[in-house]
Design a protein that fits this description.
- The chain is α/β, with parallel strands linked by helices and 274 residues long.
- The protein has a domain of 143 residues: HUPs (Rossmann fold), CATH 3.40.50.
- 47% of the residues lie in helices and 20% in strands.
- The protein is built from twelve helices and ten strands.
- A ten-stranded mixed β-sheet has the order 3-2-1-4-5-10-9-6-7-8, with helices on both faces.
- Helix 4 runs parallel beside helix 6.
- The radius of gyration is 20 Å and the shape is elongated.
- The two termini are 18 Å apart.
């Protein structure tokens, strides 16, 4: 974790994410990249390719706000670089991931429900869907060093989780946290306790690091409900999810459990792409 990207719109929730990024940067000696995307009125984008006075005003205002926040963070002892863009958040993040070797993203979110979730989704959901690096989504004021000590890692204990497993272990070690590994059993994807035990035993035989953490089986009506309810029942501090790569069409019809969790959970969510 050397280059941490923090998209900010200066809202309360985005500042929560900034505070978390500062704590992580201090622990890892990382650089923070503050990104602010200016949403220009549509006519500025479509009418002319030349720079208009109104556009200059919005850009100058944004640059001043980002610079002010950057100075505040530098006073806390972290290295900060600033980026102001007029493109969409997803396009700006994609560009920075490639250009600046970003290896971690922290962002705030209020989530999305109802029609907004169906047609637009939250910004955090869009970044989770497209990001190739881990994304930590913050929903509330969080002291990442002192408050995150129990992490939920829900999976089916198959080999496709190996890389994500290693990254989750590393993140837990940074925070001094323990992981609750859990298999969510549902009526639509039901396995007997004996079958689940075989999967867990096979996984833990090959990856003995898991034995220093806790392993559970939990039943619920859906995987999403199971993860959220397990986290509530076990007073977990953070949920770790693993969005799979899928086409836009597949996403439209199948959705994503990870993105649903990002939208609906009130706890911080860490996503690691499979």
């Amino acid at each position: 974790m050397k280059n941490i990207l923090v998209p900010t719109d200066f809202s309360e929730h985005s500042i929560y994410a900034v505070d978390v990024a500062v704590d992580l940067a201090k622990k890892n000696g990382a650089t923070i990249f503050l990104l602010h995307c200016v949403e220009l009125p549509r006519r500025f984008v479509t009418e002319s390719t030349s720079v208009l006075p109104e556009e200059l005003f919005f850009m100058r205002e944004a640059s001043n706000n980002v610079k002010k926040l950057s100075l505040e963070l530098q006073a806390k002892g972290v290295e900060v670089k600033t980026v102001v863009e007029t493109s969409t958040l997803t396009n700006s993040v994609k560009t920075l991931l490639e250009k600046e070797s970003i290896d971690f993203i922290v962002m705030g979110s209020t989530g999305a429900t109802g029609s907004k979730e169906l047609f637009l989704g939250s910004n955090a959901e869009k970044i989770v869907r497209t990001s190739s690096v881990p994304v930590l989504v913050i929903k509330d004021k969080t002291n990442i060093n002192n408050e995150v000590k129990k992490i939920v890692f829900a999976c089916d204990f198959s080999q496709k989780y190996i890389d994500a497993f290693q990254k989750a272990i590393s993140f837990a070690q940074v925070l001094g946290a323990k992981i609750d590994f859990v298999y969510i059993n549902t009526p639509y994807h039901f396995n007997s306790s004996r079958e689940i035990k075989v999967l867990i035993d096979s996984f833990s035989t090959e990856h003995k690091e898991i034995l220093s953490h806790n392993i559970h089986m939990y039943s619920d009506f859906s995987i999403e409900e199971g993860i959220i309810h397990f986290a509530e029942d076990h007073q977990s501090d953070l949920i770790c999810m693993f969005p799979a790569r899928q086409s836009v069409l597949m996403h439209l019809f199948n959705g994503s459990i990870s993105e649903d969790i990002v939208n609906h959970s009130q706890k911080p969510v860490l996503t690691i792409k499979l």
